[in-house]
Amino acid sequence: MSIRRGKLGEYRIIVELLKRGYNVFEVVDDNEGIDFVIRLPNGKYIEIQAKYKKDGYFNQFYMRGESRDNYFFIFYWVDEDHFWIIPSTDIKEKARYQQDGKWKNTYTIDLTSGVQREIFKDYKDKWELLEREVEREAKE
User: Fold this and answer.
1) Are strands 82-87 and 36-39 parallel, antiparallel or unpaired?
2) Cβ pair 78, 9 in contact under 8 A
3) pLDDT digits (tens, 9 = 90+) for 21-58
4) Which parts of 20-113 fold into alpha helices (H)?
5) Structural domains in the chain plus CATH codes
6) Could you give the CA distance from residue 79 to residue 92 in angstroms, rounded to a whole number?
7) In sequence order, which ranges of the chain are alpha helices (DSSP H)?
8) Bridge-based pairing state of the strands 36-39 and 57-61
9) What is the CA radius of gyration of the chain?
10) CB–CB of 63/33 below 8 Å?
11) Are 117 and 95 in contact (CB under 8 A)?
């Protein structure tokens, strides 16, 4: 996938977040696996890793660091024009993890069909998962 298409996917997710009223800030260097953050009124942040694919197969992606409550993956599948909003804690629990080989320490999600599509069906367009975490973080 080209860098340009990846950026277009990130911006599609950012636009959706802005439409929903979030204050979104882009991260210049995503070495930590964070593409942008949502800043909350209390100064806390929700960290977002954006993934975009045209064919629905999100292959070999890294989750750097530990999973945590305020770290979300948002997958956008352009062919279906849908989003999957998945907390990093659920990625760690449900995605396929590669322990060795060329793609060591990466995760894979296939949203096109089969078992993983069924596993992740409850995350499709489930913006309320992000909304709940925003509300929880804002109260702390």
Assistant:
1) unpaired
2) yes
3) 999 999 887 667 889 999 999 999 999 999 887 765 55
4) 88-94
5) 3-139 (3.40.1350.10)
6) 26
7) 3-19, 88-94, 114-119, 127-139
8) unpaired
9) 14
10) yes
11) no
Alpha helices (runs of H) in 2-125, residue ranges in sequence order: 3-19, 88-94, 114-119
Burial state string for 2-38 with b = 16 or more CB within 10 A and e = fewer than 16: eeeeeeebbebbbebbeeeebebeeeeeeeebbbbbb
Q: What is the pLDDT of residues 93-138, one digit of tens each?
A: 888 888 888 877 778 777 777 788 889 999 999 999 999 999 999 8
CA-based torsion, 106, 31, 10, 42: positive or negative: positive
Terminal C-alpha separation, the chain: 39
CA–CA dist 121, 84 (Å, integer): 8
By three-state DSSP, how is residue 123 classified?
helix
The Cβ of residue 94 has, within 10 Å, a number of other Cβ atoms equal to: 15
**5 residue type, one letter:** R
Give the integer Cα–Cα distance in Å for 94 and 109. 9
Q: Which of 80, 78, 69, 77 is nearest to 130 (CA)?
A: 69
Reported residue count of the chain is 140
